[in-house]
Amino acid sequence: MDMVDYLASLGYNPSKIKRDDYWYRSPLREEKTASFKINRKQNVWYDHGTGQGGNLVDFGVLYHSCSVKEFLEKLDNNFSFHRQHLQVKNPEDPITIGSPIKILSEGRLASLSLLRYLKQRRIAEEVARKYCCEISFSLHNKMHSAIGFKNNEGGYELRNAWYKGSCSPKAITSFDNGGKELVVFEGFFNFLSHQSIYQNKTLSSFNFLVLNSTSFFEKSRELMEQHDSIRLYLDRDKTGQNCTLQALSWSNKFKDESHLYKGYNDLNEWMQYIGKSVKKGLRLT
To answer: Where are the alpha helices (DSSP H) in the chain?
Structure first.
């Protein structure tokens, strides 16, 4: 699998391209100047800021904070989305600047197929319309529509029944209600699940943070610790649990709420299958 394609699928695009070398601001840490390089011919990467490098698996293990086996499972689950060769744009060419995904329009959620998908995931339509929009986009010159969840930098997480992706820039999504307590989620469907569960209760005293990627967890530590209490609803896979354990070691302000959906991968899976007989460890995308 081409590493440049894989980073594009995560929402990262090169700052500059010189022959076979693609330079990025590191997806593994915060920086202002691009020092993360992929040599596309050799399909290897090197982060000049940390001295780390390797192949796609080495990157994936660091980016997702998971084991080799878990990363290979992630690749296997999403292979159909990555197997086409993405047309990564050269930022020096003004005609081709941008991501393989081109946002065409943003509007109110109205597509019956998207609303049906939300219903399958047991997300309240009123909640989805409050926090999400309907995005029309092109990918490989084909038109698609998806549920769009906007992040703080103006990029979108994109979901429909067959597609899971994002458009750059990749970033967290936060909701500041002036509260002293913060509730943290890994993905936006878990946030929507929480809002659906408590939609008839007042949540205005809480602030909310959706990471959109566990790679932003440690980077968000300062933001999280500005609150008196931080409730963590992270996934119960190894990556999510590692982040939770790390936070609990930082401060006693962090609280692990994932015990609510013990036996399930995340809050949305628990909400979909609670009361039904399911195989332990079942994962949904």
So the answer is: 3-9, 56-64, 68-77, 79-82, 112-120, 125-131, 188-197, 221-224, 238-250, 267-273
